[in-house]
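Anyone? Bumping this.
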Amino acid sequence: MLKKWFRPFEAVDVKQRLTITAVWVVLFAGYWVIASQGSKHLFPTPAQVWAGMQSLYAEGLVVHIASSLGLCLQAAAISLLISLAVVYLSPLPAIKPIAVFLSRLRYLPLTGITFYLTILVTNARSMQVWVLVVFMSLYFITSLLGVLKDIPVDEINHARSLKCSRWEILWEVVIKGRLDYVLDVLRQNLAIIWMMLVTVESILVAAGGLGVLIKNSDKFANHGRIVALQIIILLIGLLLDWVLQVTRKGLFRYSTY
Amino acid sequence: MAIKYEQKDTILHVENLSVAYGEKVIISNVNFTEKDTVRADKAQGQTIAFVGRSGRGKSTLFRALTGLEAPTTGMVLIPDYEKKIVNGQQPAKKVKEGDVGFVDQKYTLFRHKTIYQSLKFACRKTSLSDAEKEEKIKQYLHDWGLDSCKNQYPNELSGGQRQRTAILEQLLSSGYYMVLDEPFSGLDVGNIQNVKDAFWLINDSNELNTIIFSTHDIDLAVELADSLYVLGYGKNEKGNLVQTGTVLKHFDLKEMGLAWHDGLTKDHLDLVKEVKEIMLAS
């Protein structure tokens, strides 16, 4: 059996897959326990992480999670609307250069953008939202342009053969025909935004959020709390990912990828 | 034995057609005319086959026939049935997008529409009333064996169901003409039979119904078509092949007494041999 586990492209049944996963979990947990022993340990002990988790809960972890989720969802909704408008109009030759240019802007560093946003927005919360919106939109536009590019020409010709006008093709093939892809693009890019939370939430400490908690814990070198927060951030991210995946499959029966 | 028939009005006229992409001429000097075939005992549509080796411009010709590709020179004319007959002649019009149905070899459908939604969408621009559209769709779904899966999406359909839906969409949208680019490509024996059945169903339902298809299976082309064109590279004055597709030969299977037969006779097989020889030389 062990031989099969180390042969490329070998198919394994569910039981073996679970066994392999269990082995990795045990190895990881074992390494964590060993690496957290002694006076010069790399990681906090599981007990320290658990204690960190409890102290975070006592400090209103749930409220902070709600604040982070609120910020993330608000920014996601605004940037999705902006990105969809830009991308859906990108088949127009006059708009295409703008869409492509915005996509290229994703290589811009965050610092320069925040400087100009500080001048433009009036309060810190708006600042947080718009920093996220700007960055999320650039990634959304890039991914959505990729979705458009991958539409087979056969689908366009099929619509043309059914007497669709150019605007009908845009509506039927691009907008309605790729709605499920929008949810998937949101799912993939939300991970990037979730990662940016720590930076963005440090702009307004008073508003709270997971980013503020992790920054404070970092300041006091409380490793137990830092790892506890990282685990929480990871789990919420995975939960968001799962919810979007299930929503896509539930809403769009034809979405098979 | 030859089956009696008559030829009436012109249903398709292609004149000096050429298509080029930049400097590269894909097809040139394509000329042919097809007429409405009438048989006394039954409604008989037309089935026109195009055969030729790969890269000889069949798909390009089909895109031009359906108005999806603008000709570089020449024109494709079909009767304009929306106009009244003048001096005993149906006025003609240049073909444009949507006039001629087009089914590609992948049987592309809208991925986000069920069969019923697709068919309803296909007839949205016809002059029928809502009740008539509903009745027609219901009838088609029944006749083509799609009743039970009318609420399913393309990804939930079998290959045969996809084929029938793709053909029905075009029937509802485009009227009498349908171009199918390699409809038998990659199909198993059951699905080939399904498409053949679909051809007969279309041909028997209206004498103006015209199927134009391409295939690499010469036997099938000879079995199904009543008119067959061989597309290939022509030759220049020196006898060398030029890299531009054109019609090399036309076989009128009606005139030859080979149309509308079940199966292949010796004469059919001789024709298959002749077609293959022309193709190999082109």
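Late reply, but here is one note on the structure posted above: The mean pLDDT of chain A is 89.
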